[in-house]
Design goal:
One of its GO terms (molecular function) is 4 iron, 4 sulfur cluster binding. The chain is α/β, with parallel strands linked by helices. It is built from 25 helices and 30 strands. It starts with 17 loop residues before the first helix and ends with a helix. The structure holds FE3-S4 cluster.
């Protein structure tokens, strides 16, 4: 490996233009007299036109639509494909803002870092070549496979206090650990920023989380967010920013705050942020960004990097860190939070086997130097009494910088000594890229320090119960193999007949000898000057990449309502973006809309019949079965040019920023989705792709529409004409001919209606450019 000092990094760390941002904010303050939260300061200082009033003194939060200018875009390899295919079709010569691509999701964990990386580079060559050539052409920084996970790299290199950035991944808020607003979006939103189009966000409400007290031994920032997830539930953060304040913020490391911000995504929050702290300054220095730290210090003096004294929050949640204990959340949902001391009892009550089959640590959520030195401390204690882990114990470092520093400081050797396998610096098992040979279709439990635990997420096995905990709890429990083991109180038996109990782990925030950059050939090699002569090759018969055809507008020939739609199905219960567009083996088709659409809703439950991946084609020709898979019926409708609608349950599209979950239904001809409620990012993604999302005014009406019914919009025309107060009703013709009317609500802004009219946001942008 070539080792280079930090200042030799090729990537561009850009100091936010604090003077300009502070000036923008002072313009906004002419219209807004109230004290501002930190989140509002960051949002308003990034307004496209700060001189324009945000409303006539009315409530801004939760109501006004903000037109924003983000400073940076980051994309991971799976979502970047579609983002770039969309950007390419806009026809611009370069990205309007600094942008980066990170190769992390496509690397499969099989048997260890080196071979896994080599194998994945070969099997994904076509995609990595495409991403690299697009990066070169448009002046985007390209982080090669092996460089690390997007959010860790962003924190180490690009994040800066007070900045506003977008990332095509739902855990983009991780960068909030450096006191900024980092927001997870779909590729089409990234295209807004990359084409210089103002990015629209409905002003979120701001929840203040007041931290007092001090974390006790064994308790880490991960436990704070696991606890909060239990309190807020997976919907509690929807349409809201979580802004932490109070003395408890200042005791946490910058990377610890990043973990908390990362998992704000699990409660559906738009993002999370913290006031600028001395620990953030130390992290900026340690990661080679002293100029950013100095500029932030200066900006902080003007009050820009913290809330105004007396600023009001929409809700304040008090958390006394001294009262927190470690938590274990799951299975299958991140908000099922159980304090460690009650977990053994909980396992017993549920009748689960008191064992787990693997412990996994690391990922973008928890692979900081502090996390890794803390787990190494436990491994050292265990080794000194001759213990090794009882279950497979896997570790994914978040970046090459972390991996190399772990290796240099003996952390890796310490973990390997007790049985750990260190995987490539990539997402791996966190996104189902785990070639797990044991427990293929058997009920079992795993413990991870990751952030998400929907069914099948890690190993593709529906029967794997996945629990989330801090890396130290996962590690300590891996020496027992039992779910009921509480490392704070319980002893482990030793071969000598004696008993051993762990001392609380202790780690270091930052490496005393500084970070080691490791293998610098993974890092961006070119300065991000666009090279327009670069050819982007997509082979005609590629199974991985396909150029995008613009979606047609629904409003041909002067039509002002959506065309008549058939209802494809009524989806029952939890339907995350994982249900709508599964990951794992499907990740390889992210750049090929036709191929990936074969997985549309394949794990969703049909409310009419209760089966998974079964739908009905009520117009099936005689002799053909009406029952088919969900993509099967969607394809039949597409072949008949029959637009369709979906009826869905609460919090539809929760989980990730995966825009394929919007692109795929649209590809088959979905024009409208009517939900009990939507998750924010997904609802926006639907709007961007020209699908109309509607909310039932009365949630009970959900069961009134079923598959095969014909639905028409009534009132959309008025809305498109900008008639104030216009509402959309649905005229539903049931299969037996009965006609009913259903009241709905919508969240379409004036701009979003233009996207709908054009067929997609991209069609609209393109029309503006011509
Ligand atoms: Fe990757 Fe999992 Fe994070 S998929 S970006 S490590 S949430």
């Amino acid at each position: 490996a070539t080792h280079a000092p930090l200042h030799e990094k090729n990537c561009t760390s850009i100091t936010p233009p604090y003077d300009a941002l502070i000036e923008n904010l002072s313009q906004v303050r002419r219209h807004i007299k109230s004290k501002l939260t930190l989140a509002e300061k960051i949002l308003y200082s990034h307004l496209n036109d700060p001189s324009k009033s945000l409303g006539d003194g009315g409530k801004i939060r939760g109501q006004a639509y903000l037109q924003l200018k983000p400073e940076r875009v980051a994309m991971q390899d799976a979502s970047a494909q579609m983002a770039l295919l969309q950007f390419m079709s806009a026809g611009l010569p370069q990205s309007a803002v600094p942008a980066s691509i990170h190769c992390d999701h496509l690397i499969q964990a099989v048997d260890g870092a080196k071979t896994d990386l080599e194998r994945s580079i070969i099997s994904n060559k076509e995609v990595f070549d495409f991403l690299e050539s697009a990066a070169r052409k448009y002046g985007i920084e390209f982080w090669r496979p092996g460089s690390g996970i997007i959010h860790q790299i962003v924190l180490e290199n690009y994040a800066a206090p007070g900045m506003l950035m977008l990332g095509t991944d739902s855990h983009t808020p991780n960068a909030g650990g450096l006191g900024m607003l980092a927001i997870g979006v779909g590729g089409a939103d990234a295209v807004d920023a990359m084409t210089g189009t103002p990015w629209e966000l409905k002003a979120p409400e701001i929840v203040g989380i007041h931290l007092t007290g001090q974390l006790g031994p064994w308790v880490s920032p991960k436990d704070l967010i696991l606890h909060l997830a239990g309190k807020l539930t997976v919907r509690g953060g929807t349409g809201r920013i979580l802004e932490y304040f109070g003395p408890g913020v200042f005791d946490q490391s910058c990377t610890g705050l990043a973990t908390v911000a990362n998992m704000g995504a699990e409660v559906g929050a738009t993002t999370s942020t913290f006031p600028y702290t001395p620990n953030m300054r130390a992290y900026l220095h340690a990661t080679g960004r002293a100029p950013v730290a100095r500029a932030a210090d200066k900006a902080a003096k003007s009050g820009f990097l913290a809330a105004d004294e007396g600023a009001e929050y929409d809700q304040v949640i008090e958390i006394n860190l001294s009262e927190l204990e470690p938590h274990i959340n799951g299975p299958f949902t991140p908000d099922l939070a159980t304090p460690l001391s009650k977990f053994g009892e909980f396992v017993k009550e549920q009748g689960w086997k008191d064992s787990f089959s693997a412990g996994l640590i690391g990922s973008c959520t928890n692979s900081s130097y502090q996390d890794m030195t803390s787990v190494a401390d436990l491994a050292r204690q265990a080794k000194s009494v001759g213990l090794t882990t009882k279950v497979p114990f896997l570790c994914t470092p978040g970046s090459e910088q972390i991996r190399a520093t772990m290796e240099r400081d003996n952390v890796t050797a310490t973990l390997e000594d007790v049985g750990a396998v260190v995987l490539a610096n990539a997402c791996g098992p966190c996104i189902g890229q785990w070639k797990r040979e044991d427990k293929k279709s058997e009920e079992n439990a795993i413990l991870t320090s990751f952030n998400r635990n929907f069914k099948s997420r890690n190993d593709g096995n529906q029967l794997t119960m996945n629990f989330l905990a801090s890396p130290t709890i996962v590690t300590a429990m891996a020496f027992s193999g039992k779910l009921s083991f509480n490392p704070m109180t319980d002893f482990l038996p030793l071969a000598s007949g004696e008993k051993f109990r762990f001392s609380p782990p202790s780690g270091k925030d930052l490496p005393v000898a500084g970070f080691d950059l490791g293998e610098t050939s993974f890092y961006p090699t070119t300065t991000p000057e666009p090279q327009p002569e670069t050819e982007i090759v997509i082979s005609k018969d590629s199974q991985r990449l396909e150029l995008l055809e613009p979606f047609p507008s629904h409003f041909k020939g002067g039509r002002m309502e959506l065309p008549q739609m058939k209802v494809l199905m009524r989806v029952r219960g939890k339907c995350t973006t994982d249900h709508i567009s599964a990951a794992g083996p499907w990740l390889k088709y992210k750049g090929h809309l036709t191929n990936i659409s074969e997985n549309l809703l394949i794990t969703a439950v049909n409310d009419e019949g209760g089966e998974v991946n079964v739908a009905f084609d009520h117009d099936a020709p005689q002799g053909e079965s009406s029952s088919d898979t969900i993509p099967g019926v969607a394809k039949r409708l597409k072949s008949r040019n029959q637009p369709f609608a979906l009826v869905v349950d609460d919090n539809y599209g929760e989980g990730s920023a995966r825009e394929h979950a919007a692109l795929q239904p649209r590809f088959y001809g979905c024009a409208m989705i009517v939900a009990r409620s939507f998750a924010r990012i997904h609802e926006t993604n639907l709007k961007k792709q020209g699908v109309l999302p509607l909310w039932f005014a009365d949630k009970a009406d959900y069961s009134l529409i079923g598959s095969g019914d014909v639905v028409e919009t009534v009132g959309l025309a008025e809305l498109l004409k900008n008639t104030p107060g216009a509402e959309i009703k649905l005229k539903v013709t049931k299969r037996d001919g009965q006609v009913i009317e259903i009241q709905t609500k919508h969240t379409m802004s004036a701009d979003q209606l233009k996207w709908l009219e054009a067929g997609s946001a991209l069609n609209h942008i393109r029309s503006q450019m011509n």
